[in-house]
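Much of the work behind modern protein science is quiet bookkeeping, done one molecule at a time. The protein below has been through that process, and both of its lines are reproduced in full.


***
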Amino acid sequence: VEIEIKLARGEYSNETIDALYAFTQCEQSISCNLLVIKDGIPTIMSVSEVLRYHAKKLLAVLKMELELEISELLDELHARTLERIFIEERVYKAIESKKTQETVIKAVIQGLVPFAAEIKRDVTVEDVERLLKIPIRRISLYDIERARSEMERIKSRLKEARYNLAHLKAYGIGFLKGIADKLRPAWKRKTRITSFDKVDVKEAARRDVALRYDTQTGYLGKSVSSGDFLFDVSPFDRLLVIRRNGLYSVIEVPEKLYVDRDMRHCALADKDSLSSVIFSAVYQAVAGGPAHIKRCHIEQWITNKDYSLVPDGSRLLYFTVEPRKTFIVTFAQKTRIKKNDVPFRVENYDVKGLKAQGVRLSPREVVSVADRVEVSLFSDSADGFDAGKKPTSARKPAATKKSPATKKIAVKLKKSAKAKKPVATKKPSASKGNEVIKKPIGGLLDKASAKKKPRE
């Protein structure tokens, strides 16, 4: 059966193959128990255990074969040595005058005594009987060089057998390779050796289902038709939901679940990605008082179990997952303190454990906590937001101080202006002839001005 799958545009073959192995019958896992008879008892073993058992058994058999081969080679070398000495040294000449079997055997043994260092073994009756069975024709045609080469061949085989016995594992591997090379032409391999990559169902599943949250009703899920779109999910994903009361839980992707209004955070519950996320929360006791800040990681959980991000008897005032963030804390009004809105930065506080207590921001009682409002260049106010300072109305520009040079220029301008002013003509006063009638001098100021001399 041949099945052809045509992919749509935008689909990739690698992702499709992983999905086929994960969600179809392209791959099936078959489990079985390997039941064998071991030492006369039925035993369940794994493939590795069976291979180890047979490998030890094979090494034991190869060891016995090598020991047997060495023994046989030593026997053959001993026989060849006795034969060579018996013929080359003419030991057989001593038996020509002997009448009985016992005296013949004794004469042969005594004739071999001078060569005991070369023989290296005790000569037995069986060795003598084997020498006496050598035919006369063979003795007359005995080839000394051929006998010596045969003995060298036996010594070489003996050396090789002893080396293999000393390196038994390497000899066993070579033995198996030799069998494989011998059987390869007749028994060709019909399977293929390859590695299997594990396909994770969660990774193979595509995230193509829209997750929505309705802020008006407080419902979260795939079947929520209204509300805001959060992100795409798959049926195998888990969600981390943090509610406005500080409780958080890891849940499966719901069809429609009530998580309360003003949900603070919702993200995929992936331990690898969440390990780098820092959760920052500002909380306050329900009865009021100062606020505390807590920064931590969420790395372990049990599905569908509620956990509290803040201590018992506290309420969550502010929450963020941004590593660098500025928030404004509004304190209760207090005499002699004009600044009630104070900025704080979350990155200035250390990250602690999930069960650790928070750090107090200030001993003053907190009214509210909010994000800092960044003022753009195109807003009504050109200056940035300053905590504790309310927007003020525009002021009149203050008079600038004049420098001495500016003062001199101003004086000159005033003088020139006075010089340019038209001088009013005086009306001729009444006089007799050419005499001018002077006005009588009156008060003290007039007398003083009259006495004053003009400058030269």
Observations:
- Residues 213-371 form one domain.
- The two ends are 133 Å apart (CA to CA).
- Residues 81 and 119 are 7 Å apart (CA to CA).
